[in-house]
Queue: 2 jobs
Job 1
Amino acid sequence: MKSFLILTIVLSLILVSSNFAAEHGAYFDYEGYTGPGYWSQLDVKYRMCGVGQKQSPINFHTNIDYASVSPYVYMQNVNYVRMENNGHTIELSSPQWQNSFINFDSTNYYFKQVHFHTPSEHRINGIHMDLEAHFVFEDPNTKRKAVVGVLYYIDPLGTNSNFIDPIITWAPRTKGNATYNVFVDIASVFSLVREAGPNWAYRYSGSLTTPPCHESVTWWVATKQLPISATQLVFNLRVYMGFNSRPTQSRNGRTVPGY
Amino acid sequence: MKSFLILTIVLSLILVSSNFAAEHGAYFDYEGYTGPGYWSQLDVKYRMCGVGQKQSPINFHTNIDYASVSPYVYMQNVNYVRMENNGHTIELSSPQWQNSFINFDSTNYYFKQVHFHTPSEHRINGIHMDLEAHFVFEDPNTKRKAVVGVLYYIDPLGTNSNFIDPIITWAPRTKGNATYNVFVDIASVFSLVREAGPNWAYRYSGSLTTPPCHESVTWWVATKQLPISATQLVFNLRVYMGFNSRPTQSRNGRTVPGY
Ligand SMILES: [Zn+2]
Ligand SMILES: [Zn+2]
């Protein structure tokens, strides 16, 4: 009976993963043989996850890394979202966001979606935070991406994040489902992290932190971390997505132990 | 100037690590080239970290894994401890604990030390907790180990863990330092997790979760998770030790995706 149960689970996961693979690339997750250490072997398209030289996430050392002059931010009407539980994370997107962008190096990168990782993927001085939000932008001409990473810590005062609140209420608990037309205050997150000043983020050249790990990403990781309540994180957000944080990667060309 | 700073840091880290290597094995940590994916290449003694078939930690699936009849626990005088910050974790030990033990399979395993990982190393249904305490026991005849793992979650009510409280107060903030003769109520943790009943823990045969990753460990991971406050964890314990959690490993002989 127990073997039968296991077999059934294996078969159904294989069916799910082969359907998924046909469209998007091989099934991956954060455990064992399908976890981060094996991503590059799961699909030829995932090769960069293993051989890349500018992979993300990384650990910042505040005695070496300094915040750079950060992007100009223009976010409008980034409110009514589609919330999808895609099996890896909760992702918020909307076709109405085509006019919202960040600008740096004389280029506009337009907002595509925001999603989450628990615990944080980037670390600061070797210390992780409880949640990381990735705001993904794209240059429509080059298809190069810019991702703004915002780290959240569980606040002892129990302060709820207003940005996270509607996600807790409306995000689908089960994989493959979506909720539509939910109001979320995305611009508020940018207001908060920009309180750090014009140099509000660490900049580096990196990759997607999930397969196919393409190295076409300019990262901007906010220096200011934001509070979230234990109720929002421990009993809600991380239960929906589970552990979905890639280990920190070595930096290209640098050999500082600890990176 | 910046290159010079980096060079100085590299040199001093190499000095530290070669001193350390002579005595204990090569330097390791949780980042980049010295992180978990590279442990087996750092020192010939660490080979098992790469080729082992029963490595820890793992992810438990509560539809497949059941708690087993768990050890008899006899903990006395496990109070006055030496607290060491060894660079990887905070470790509590005392020579007076030689009479405290757990018993299973007709064998006594005597208490040696307890230390911590953030976030938790074991996961349950793919979900991590905020902290994991490892209570390490040893059979003096065979030198085989038994480790009791207790997972803690940040409690929205802000409940302080009485066990953790004196650690926050007395644990050395800097690596290589120790504090002596601190009162800690270790037995109370066992009282709490045993409230789950006679089958209070998942049992499996695994390894040390740090180099040399020896596979001589019987694991007992408590099914009951315990509360810790955000102040204790976010602003204290994880700042002292940073991210020190090995990724979950594949199970020996099992090929269930997701393990
Ligand atoms: Zn991401
Ligand atoms: Zn441990």
Note: The pocket of zinc ion (ligand 2) is lined by residues B 115, 117, 134, 209 (CB under 6 Å).
Job 2
Amino acid sequence: MQSRITDLFEIDFPIISGGMVWCSGWELAAAVSNAGGLGLIGAGSMTPEVLREHIIKCREKTPYNFGVNVPLMRPQAAELMEVIAEQKVPIVFTSAGSPKKWTGWLHEHKIKVAHVVSSSAFAAKCEAAGVDAVVAEGFEAGGHNGKEETTTMCLIPAVRRATNLPLIAAGGIATGSAMLAAEAMGADGIQMGTLFALTQESSAHENFKRLCLNLDEGDTKLYFRKLSPTRLAKNGFQALVQEAEDRGASGDELLELIGIGKTKVGIFDGDVENGEIEIGQVTALLKGREIETVAQVMERIIDEYYYFRQDLINQAMEEIPSRRTLR
Amino acid sequence: MQSRITDLFEIDFPIISGGMVWCSGWELAAAVSNAGGLGLIGAGSMTPEVLREHIIKCREKTPYNFGVNVPLMRPQAAELMEVIAEQKVPIVFTSAGSPKKWTGWLHEHKIKVAHVVSSSAFAAKCEAAGVDAVVAEGFEAGGHNGKEETTTMCLIPAVRRATNLPLIAAGGIATGSAMLAAEAMGADGIQMGTLFALTQESSAHENFKRLCLNLDEGDTKLYFRKLSPTRLAKNGFQALVQEAEDRGASGDELLELIGIGKTKVGIFDGDVENGEIEIGQVTALLKGREIETVAQVMERIIDEYYYFRQDLINQAMEEIPSRRTLR
């Protein structure tokens, strides 16, 4: 399944697993890479020492390329980058900051760079900063979101027009048909978070996975617009946030609510009632499923992709070749 | 361009123009039908007498099928339906209410029915109620939105699974590539609002069209969640709403803000600073364009669709026929 993304990252399928906090450890990254995609380790919830361990274990588990996701606003971002370079990780995905900051340094260390954007203007900035690929992530994605709230359907065509870079679509993708849809709009590959966060190999707590695999449409919403927009699943913590926002709580009051480590409490420790549960809208599409392995999930997505694509091709072949003229 | 939607409505291209308040008069509906799609008259902003005039004028202007959109919560919904039946309009799109209420009656009058949904559960209800097609409309659409805030990318695969009915995708579609994406996810046709609202034939005020053709990503947001979620473009009125919601205004306080006829003020009368401006997120993709005719817009979309589809087919043809096995 060749594309500019499979070429760039030397992978078989243009499928990347997002580097999500508390979910994307060495096991998940290695499983995705072993299945033919690109696994990312999520450094957002790791100290430099923990990250080093995960990179080493990941390398033991897979002979294929994998990468690390670094949210640039992290206090220890520089130390994380040092570990990545020291360990000769070949690919880094950056987000939550300027692509100009680290791209040059990463390239000096022979590391390929993709940057996550939520607007076409920012995608153009990424191209100017010299990144190798952009990830265009829509409103439906779990966790931190862009202020524009632009959905994947509106964002991909806009970013496709704004840049010639290899383009990875993210947000709301969990089926082969959505993968095909992203390609139809000009994407060269896809990144998925939710689908992989809820696999066996994800390092999230089982309670988190079971909760998310039981959510309905409408059970995730965007909060904290006064601070940094974040998609949360409904639970006790979210109810407190909803109530606070409904009565007009200020940014400072909301900051108190968040506290430190609430995502760890929810996603990693398994207190799904009081912790912060970050997951994408698309979780509703997975409702009722078992917690599957990465291999099962990859096989299904790829099968579906080929099935829907063949359907599209058959439709096209059946049409009368001459284009219908407008009346 | 045959599909279950072109068959159902006897049209050339599976493209429907949404029946939007203040925009979708007889001119727009007739132009879309004359261009090979299905034009809808938006009865939401019409009295029964005004609707009758529009239907008669539309019929004079186009020999092809057109329909009427009726928001069921409208006070005069029953009278609107009587006019539609009296005038032998062949197609009705209903929204904002139960599909069980009017579907039987419309069918008795040999009128085909499509119902607008924002969730897969509601789509299943529509199938049970006997509608002929469902419109699945995502979060990115202008105006009234579903409470779930599910995006088109997440909604279409979910609705496709929930019902076998002919499926029309709506919300965030304004290019041939997005039209192809909707088809990739199993939709049988598309409905577009924003794109058609900003054409010459749209009955909206030129100020509205110019404002919307100058909006950026992030310039529309969802408001009135305490009442009925509505997507508004940024302007003076929206700023008042933002301020009120930020300080926790109640539903009643917000109702006062809305007043009566604010959408008419903005969309029809052209006071784009104080009126309510309802438009979809995808307006940002049209930024900088001239106000084009329906014929120009239809030709571009169809050209783009074929272009992107051929690209997809070429990609598929170049691949090694045997499926790559997972590692």
Note: Residues 322-327 of chain A have pLDDT under 50 and may be disordered.
